[in-house]
Amino acid sequence: MAANIFNSSTLPVLEQVVNFAQARHGVLAGNIANLDTPGYKTRDLSPELFQENLKQAIEESRRPASPGQSAASGATGAASTTNYDAFAKVEDSLKGILRHDGVDVSLEHQIAEISKNHAQHNLAVNLMNSQFRQLRAAISERQV
Amino acid sequence: MFNAFDVSTSGLVAQRTRLNAISSNLANMSTTRNEFGEAEAYRPRYVTFQTDTSLTTSGGGAGVRVASVDLSDEPPNMKYQPGHPDAGPNGYVAYPNVDMTTEFVDALEATRAYEANIGVIEITKDLGAQTLRIIA
């Protein structure tokens, strides 16, 4: 019953977004730390791949819920497990210029990416907070 | 999550080591004797970095560490000063091959890289604080 409350909203999706943003932040922090390491190649997690996987997971979790309401409980866990695949892929990006010491880290590009990632993380956390506020308002039977 | 702090800190440590080597090169740019008082020009130090896989984050980010501090192989600058106490038999004195422009550009680059890592630490702190706000 309690699991239904949390899984019927967007909370599992937001949880995955926060998880992904934190994992990607670590990778981008590593790129900036290795700014002057000879031979280091930029690493990144693909937000596009993650969003694609997340989209699929959301669609899968919704599909069995439509024909019968009893099937809904079985699909609730789907969104929280399937889209971890995106984390496994650390890909080398070729957006930067390869310097003579073999480094292709572009500081401007990395800072822009880390800032975007930061904003995305905070957006997801704020949305999560507002959902919990609504739940609390419902539990305590008062107006928001 | 907290590994991101360690990764950025490794960047700070590495860049400061590099800056220390640059300071040493600039301080010794006219040194004509070694630590034993013998006539030998100071050789500039250069710091080499290496990716440190013992520091990793959940997504696959890696830290950095100082691989080695090497002495420059370039020959010293020879200056004709027959009256100098460190002059060789031909009257030339060996001066360190420190190029001030190169050292200053390197110092500026190390400083900017240090600042970039500080910026990342600030963002990491904010990510942590925002995440903790979920349970607040």
TrEMBL record, chain A:
Domain (Flagellar basal body rod protein N-terminal) ranges: 22-41
GO biological process terms, semicolon-separated: bacterial-type flagellum-dependent cell motility
Bias (Low complexity): 64-79
Signal peptide positions (record): none
Subcellular location: Bacterial flagellum basal body
Record keywords, A-Z: Bacterial flagellum, Cell projection, Cilium, Flagellum
Pfam families: Flg_bb_rod (PF00460)
Region (Disordered): 58-79
Predominant location category: other
InterPro entries according to UniProt: Flag_bb_rod_N, FlgB
Cellular component, GO annotation: bacterial-type flagellum basal body, rod
Domain of life (superkingdom): Bacteria
Subunit (UniProt): The basal body constitutes a major portion of the flagellar organelle and consists of a number of rings mounted on a central rod.
Function recorded in the entry: Structural component of flagellum, the bacterial motility apparatus. Part of the rod structure of flagellar basal body.
Annotated family: Belongs to the flagella basal body rod proteins family.
Protein's name according to its UniProt entry: Flagellar basal body rod protein FlgB
Organism of origin: Posidoniimonas corsicana
Lineage: Bacteria, Pseudomonadati, Planctomycetota, Planctomycetia, Pirellulales
Recorded name of the encoding gene: flgB
UniProtKB/TrEMBL annotation, chain B:
Main location: other
InterPro entries for this protein: Flag_bb_rod_N (IPR001444), Flagellar_basal_body_rod_CS (IPR019776), Flg_bb/hook_C_dom (IPR010930), FlgC (IPR006299)
GO CC aspect terms: bacterial-type flagellum basal body, rod
Pfam families, sorted: Flg_bb_rod (PF00460), Flg_bbr_C (PF06429)
Membrane-spanning ranges: none
Organism superkingdom: Bacteria
Domain Flagellar basal body rod protein N-terminal: 6-32
Keyword presence, Transcription regulation: no
Keywords: Bacterial flagellum, Cell projection, Cilium, Flagellum
Cellular location(s): Bacterial flagellum basal body
Gene Ontology process terms (BP): bacterial-type flagellum-dependent swarming motility
Assembly and oligomerization: The basal body constitutes a major portion of the flagellar organelle and consists of four rings (L,P,S, and M) mounted on a central rod. The rod consists of about 26 subunits of FlgG in the distal portion, and FlgB, FlgC and FlgF are thought to build up the proximal portion of the rod with about 6 subunits each.
NCBIfam families with a match to the protein in the record: FlgC
Record family assignment: Belongs to the flagella basal body rod proteins family.
UniProt-recorded name of the protein: Flagellar basal-body rod protein FlgC
Organism: Posidoniimonas corsicana
